[in-house]
Write a structure and sequence with these properties.
Blueprint (H helix, E strand, L loop, with lengths): L1 E8 L17 E5 L1 H6 L2 E5 L5 E5 L4 E6 L10 E4 L1 E10 L18 E6 L1 H4 L11 E5 L7 E3 L1 H4 L17 E7 L1 E3 L2 E4 L13 E5 L17 E2 L1 H10 L3 E4 L13 H8 L4 E3 L12 E4 L10 E3 L3 E4 L1
Parallel strand pairs: 11-14, 13-15, 14-16, 16-17
Antiparallel strand pairs: 1-5, 1-7, 2-3, 2-6, 3-4, 4-5, 7-20, 8-9, 10-17, 10-19, 11-18, 12-13, 18-20
Helix pairs in contact: 4-5
């Protein structure tokens, strides 16, 4: 599935002729600088495609399909810009009552706090709503660990800037067999550019999801790999298994090293086999709940 993600203003950029634009460029018709500073919306046109609407208030603008066409009534000028069309890969497991959980943790429960039938009494004309109640532990499904998960003096998601979770350049590292289990040691990280990047460990373990086999000793990183990730400047580390640590090691060296360094951890990812080794972006923002160490995310990748 392809969606337009963002555009970067570049007045010096010269667009090729329309017939050469292909699928990854568009001409953006922006209002004058006065209107642009005021935040007026305007349009972009894609050859052979629908109009695109965005709010032109800064150098990066989010682009989404326009919901309707209408005259704008303001003088327009053409500014050259490049639009990036990206393929989206969902990296999260759905939250379900019978989902795989870390041993000893309860599965989530979703009930109706206010059912449609009960709500109908408060509205007219057959109008009804559902208000759900969700009971879950923070470490449910595909979730993110913050430093507060491991350390009492660590920060939680409310204290971590949102840019630490979104549009992160990312790389995928393939796990290899180590003592009969998929793992990543520092040797697999040699030569990989990790500074400022999220590093995702792919083992294929996600194919066992919702089966008893998922809870067996699975993929992990070694303590040496965690130290290498820290010194190399990785900004986030994820894995398609239940734990970045070898669960037999009760000292949890990987969690300890990464979270002490302020590097968030993603666990229970999926579909990493659909990603390239590099050249894509990770989004994995949790809800900013104060006082929690971990919380589910809707992680996804954008592949230009």
């Amino acid at each position: 599935m392809y969606r337009v993600f963002c555009a970067l203003f570049d007045p010096a950029f010269t667009l090729p002729p329309p017939e050469d634009l292909g699928t990854n460029c568009a001409t953006l018709l922006l209002p004058s600088s006065h209107h642009r500073a005021a935040g007026h919306e305007t349009r972009a046109t894609q050859p052979g495609g629908p109009g695109l609407r965005f709010n032109a208030t800064g150098h990066r603008v989010v682009v989404a399909p326009a919901c309707r066409e209408e005259p704008y009534g303001i003088e327009e000028e053409t500014i050259r810009a490049r639009v990036h069309f990206c393929r989206i890969v969902d990296l999260s497991h759905p939250l379900e009552p019978d989902m795989s959980m870390f041993p000893g943790l309860p599965a989530p429960s979703v009930t109706a706090f206010l059912s449609r039938e009960a709500s109908a009494a408060h509205y007219a004309g057959g109008t009804a709503f559902l208000i759900s109640r969700i009971d879950l532990v923070g470490n449910t499904g595909t979730y993110l660990d913050t430093p507060f998960h491991r350390y009492a003096d660590g920060v939680d998601a409310t204290a971590i800037p949102l840019e630490r979770f979104v549009h992160l350049p990312a790389v995928v590292i393939a796990a290899v067999q180590r003592d009969g289990r998929p793992a990543v040691d520092e040797a697999q990280l040699a030569g990989v550019e990790m500074m400022g990047r999220s590093v995702l460990v792919a083992s294929g373990w996600d194919r066992r999801w919702k089966t008893p086999a998922y809870g067996e000793p699975g993929p992990y990183l070694t303590a040496a790999a965690a130290e290498r990730l820290r010194t190399a400047g990785a900004t986030l580390v994820g894995i398609d298994g239940m734990n970045v640590d070898d669960m037999a090691d009760r000292s949890r060296p990987v969690h300890s090293t990464l979270l002490r360094a302020g590097i968030p951890i993603l666990e229970n990812l999926c579909n990493l086999d659909q990603l390239p080794a590099s050249g894509f972006y990770l989004h994995a923002a949790p809800v900013a709940v104060k006082g929690t160490g971990s919380f589910p995310v809707r992680a996804y990748a954008l592949i230009p």
